[in-house]
Amino acid sequence: MNDHQSVSIIMIEDDEGHARLIEKNIRRAGILNHITHFTDGTTALDYLFNAAAGPQRNGPALVLLDLNLPDMSGTDILAKIKAADGPLRRTPVVVLTTTDDKVEIQRCYDLGCNVYITKPVNYESFAQAIRQLGLFLSVIQVPETEG
Amino acid sequence: MFERIVLGFGVSEGRMQRFLLACMGLGFAALVAVGIAAGWSTARNEGHTRDVNHTYEVELAIDRARILIEQSETSRRGFVLTGEHVYLDTYRTSMVALPTLLTRIATLTRDNPRQQRTIASLRQMIAELAEQRERTIAVTLRGDQVAARTLFREETSARRMRAVRKLADAMVAEEQRLLAIRDAEQQASVRVFYATLALAGLLLVLVALVSLLTVRRYTRDLAASRDSLRDFADTLEDLVNERTADLTRANDEIQRFAYIVSHDLRSPLVNVMGFTAELESATATIGALIDRAEARAPDIVTPDDRLAAREDLPEAIKFIRTSTQKMDRLINAILKLSREGRRVIAPEPLDLDTMVDTIGASLTQQLDHRGATLTIARPLPAIVSDRLAIEQILSNLIENAVKYLSPDRAGQITVRGRREGQRVTIEVEDNGRGIAASDHQRVFDLFRRSGNQDQPGEGIGLAHVRALAYRLGGVIEMASELGQGTTFRLNLPAKLDTTNADTRESGT
């Protein structure tokens, strides 16, 4: 990433356990960026678009998004982030979810998702996938947010 | 409703048949009676004709006898008057013919004692006449014509002749009387015949009428029940459609439920497995710590510490792992099944021969390894169905056959098929280890397996096959005997019609 300190990672994941495991493995991959964790869509959206420390007002970010949230579908959040004239449309979104349905994956990419990763149930594979994601995060360029 | 109609139908049909048969029997009986009456009447007629002929014969004979008697009397008188021998000759001829004629009359009337008595007195009378006549003839022959005439004048021949005539008349009258009786009898028999005829005719008309009415009523009933049956069929169709819609809805719900359940079960499972892995690495760290402690300060490590770090923890983790792995496989199976149920079915013409060939080729290694042969009874019937579904069904069945061959004999797997009207039956037969009768239904259930658990697998294949078969509007059944082999019989519509079937979109 451009700058480990400036690019914050926003994780929207309702399962605390998953969130913890993801964080652990990202850290093991050497990613030290700040991770902000949300367990529901509403607060996450509020943070993304309105919070003083949120990406819209406070620099580049990367979103880790789970599709199965208690209050709304992850695809709705994705659609809002990637809205054609939205301020966060260039923000990279990594969908990290248990759903491996073909149609759902297609829909996410249609909506502008940058990477879609299915959480493997097998923990070794899961850990490996997250670490690889970490390696990936360490090299990708994140654009500045507008506005 | 259906039962009631059938029941009512059957009863009326049986009773109706019996009734019509009875009517026909009655009609035939009447005809037979008419026939018998006609025969009897004809016989009576013949007898009567014979009797009439007989009467005429007797009358004729009596008349001839009278003529002869009169003739003989006339010729005698001629002879007595003239003495010419021509008269005598005529007289003799007449008198010779007379007894023969009388005998004939006696023979003809031998069954009638009255005629016999009359003829006896007639004979007697004629004999007396003849005696008298011979006397006058003898006198005439002597040439004494005067004496002869005197004798003739004195004799009572005229009275005797009258008596003879009266007797003959009596005989004729007797015959006439008999004839009259026979005539009356004949008329009576004719009357009986006509009466029988009329009765039988009446009976026939009656039977025909009753039969006609019954058949008409029956036909009306039949039409009525046909109509109600048609109405019933119509409602039945609606009912079936309704039920099918209900079932489809219920099935959809189950599919959705299965999907959600299996999907949502995955999330906690990821945690269980993930933190188990974390626990494992932590255990390794603790193990290392115990090692270090033992090396540097053995007195602080108790046997319990060692046991916990080196045995209890790894063992617990191992069990958690194997269990979660198994759970993961099961959840995946449910997910796969539910996903299969949501897949859009796309029917296309399929070449089953090639398909089975391909499946066989993919199993070549296992077949060779087990020394088994796969035979295809070509050609397999043509079918229009979903390629992927049929492929999965057949490969599951054939794989199962290969998997569960008997080690005692060379494996023989046969795939054959036939068309039956609008349906196609495909059989996969093996001579493998077979399935116990108690397990025949069970093997189609999810996660259920039969026999020795010596082969890898979760008990998903046949559940999947059955779900697919149902999805394609088909059924699957099996025939198997433990130790003998198994035949799976897949029955499918020859041409899958998706207009009514559910063509659901697959979703999340």
TrEMBL record, chain A:
PROSITE patterns linked: RESPONSE_REGULATORY
All residue ranges annotated as the Response regulatory domain in the record: 8-134
PTM annotation (4-aspartylphosphate): residues: 66
Keywords, sorted A to Z: Phosphoprotein
InterPro entries membership: CheY-like_superfamily, Sig_transdc_resp-reg_receiver, TCS_response_regulator
PANTHER family from the UniProt entry: RESPONSE REGULATOR RCP1 (PTHR44520:SF2), RESPONSE REGULATOR RCP1-RELATED (PTHR44520)
Name used for this protein in its record: Response regulator
Automatic annotation (TrEMBL), chain B:
EC number(s) per entry: 2.7.13.3
UniProt cross-references to Gene3D superfamilies, sorted A to Z: 1.10.287.130, Histidine kinase-like ATPase, C-terminal domain (3.30.565.10)
Pfam families: CHASE3, HATPase_c, HisKA
Origin species: Sphingomonas echinoides
Domain Histidine kinase: 260-496
Top EC class for this record: transferase
Spans through the membrane: 20-40, 192-215
Key words, A-Z: Kinase, Membrane, Phosphoprotein, Transferase, Transmembrane, Transmembrane helix
Protein name per its UniProtKB record: histidine kinase
Reaction(s) catalysed by this chain's protein: ATP + protein L-histidine = ADP + protein N-phospho-L-histidine
CDD domains: HisKA, HK9-like_sensor
